[in-house]
Design brief:
It is a single chain. By secondary structure, this protein is of the alpha+beta class. Helices cover 15% and strands 42% of the residues. It has two helices and ten strands. The protein has helices spanning 30-42, 136-145, and strands at residues 6-15, 18-23, 49-53, 56-62, 65-70, 77-80, 84-87, 94-102, 117-120, 123-130. A hairpin with a 2-residue loop joins β9 and β10 (123-130).
């Protein structure tokens, strides 16, 4: 069963088969993390990365998965600090596999129990909380390449 799409203040980038949904307050680095992930793919650090949405995204559930799409007026557009608004190739829809919360108040050296999951529109997803002022890309790469010690 599908839900009606809702707009959220977030960015998203497709990495391989799943998207990373990036949330955070204005100025927290959502667009920067998208750009860093795209550049990591260009440099061969990631196998594939493509912009899905920047700043505003539509999310909806379908068949037990959370889908993300760009806001139509912003499809293929990203803001790059110091350059302004730029156009890029983009994916029109992707399945979310990870949520990254930037400037997260619950980010800690050892995340508290329960912080590693979040629920959006009834879908439980893995979550990475990043403290304000912390470089997000190394944490995202570590999250993708390692498993928790208690798994």
């Amino acid at each position: 069963m599908a839900t009606e799409p809702s707009t959220i203040h977030a960015s998203a980038v497709l990495i391989g088969a799943k998207a990373i949904l990036i949330r955070g307050p204005s100025g927290s680095g959502k667009s920067r993390l998208v750009w860093d992930l795209l550049q990591a793919a260009e440099q061969g650090v990631l196998p594939f990365a493509r912009l899905v949405a920047d700043d505003r995204a539509f999310v909806e559930t379908q068949n037990g998965q959370l889908l993300v799409r760009p806001a139509p007026a912003l499809a293929g557009i990203i803001e790059i600090f110091g350059l302004g608004i730029r156009r890029l190739p983009y994916e029109p829809v992707a399945t979310v596999g990870l949520v990254v919360d930037l400037a997260a108040p619950d980010a800690d050296r050892i995340p508290p129990a329960g912080a590693e999951k979040t629920t959006i529109s009834g879908i439980i997803l893995p979550r990475l909380s990043v403290a304000e002022g912390t470089a997000a890309l190394p944490l995202v790469l570590a999250f993708m390449r390692t498993k928790a010690a208690d798994d």
